[in-house]
Amino acid sequence: MGKGAIAVGAVVAVALVGGCKAQAVDSDGKAQPVKISPTKTKPETSPETKPKPDGPDAPSGTPERTAAPEPPPKTLLAPGQRGDQVRELQARLRQIAWFFDNPSGAYGSSTTTAVKGFQGKRGLPRTGTTDTVTWQKLVGMTRKPTKYELYSGGGIPASKPDKRCLTGRVLCISKESRTLTWMIDGKTVSTMDVRFGSQYTPTRDGAFTVYWKSRHHVSTLYDTAMPYAMFFSGGQAVHYSSDFAATGYNGASHGCVNVRDEKKLASLFAQVRNGDKVVVYK
Fold first, then answer.
1. Residue 256 is a catalytic residue
2. Would you say 259 and 193 are in contact if contact means Cβ atoms under 8 Å apart?
3. What is residue 62's predicted lDDT score, i.e. its pLDDT?
4. Collapsing DSSP states into helix, strand and coil, what is residue 146?
5. What is the pTM of this model?
6. Is residue 20 flagged as an active site residue?
7. How far is CA 156 from CA 11, 18, 153, 265, in A?
8. Residue ranges in the chain whose pLDDT is less than 70
């Protein structure tokens, strides 16, 4: 390569590096203009044309739906109501020491107070009414009440009369329902709550007759009053008991049939005659 060609290359290189307008020379040494295209740059993406994010974090074009609020719990029992379910509510509350009266089946102020206390203890609104949530909580903490828990204060409907009670004048006494029903020729005249002897001094079952009536009797064995006593089997008698009237079924007799309603028993005592039947059955 000749010196002239080397010189021309050097000039072109210097011109390019320096950033000036480059010129080339021909074989005669004359300058020839050289066109250099400007460097093309990639245009920036405008905010309007930026790609949208994709994936789970991408904002949705549809607004999210808000879940509808749950409806309030349904009211099952409320103050002023009466019935068997109210009685069961009271008996269950009594099992866990929130209700202290005998179940009556009437939703009164004492029941409302007990329900409020139970609700507050478990973080529920203290409404005093029994809704589905309150009832489910109570059922989960208690057991199904027995018949005697439902009627701890008495008032159990009388059992079906024993067939021996269906003729004549009979004191029909059921241990199952804890009732004495005064019957004449198969028809009920009156019914009252009774209690019996303990397992150590049980009241005898069977058919007997009234053989002695004693209006102001006092037990010579236990030195206790036995008003309106009607004896039917040895020392066992139907009579009024002030202890039964005061403590209910928390106690027991020494074998006699205790009655706690003195007024009802006084009326019965006036009607019963010696020789009338007494039937004690389970």
1. yes
2. yes
3. 63
4. coil
5. 0.67
6. no
7. 126, 118, 9, 18
8. 1-63
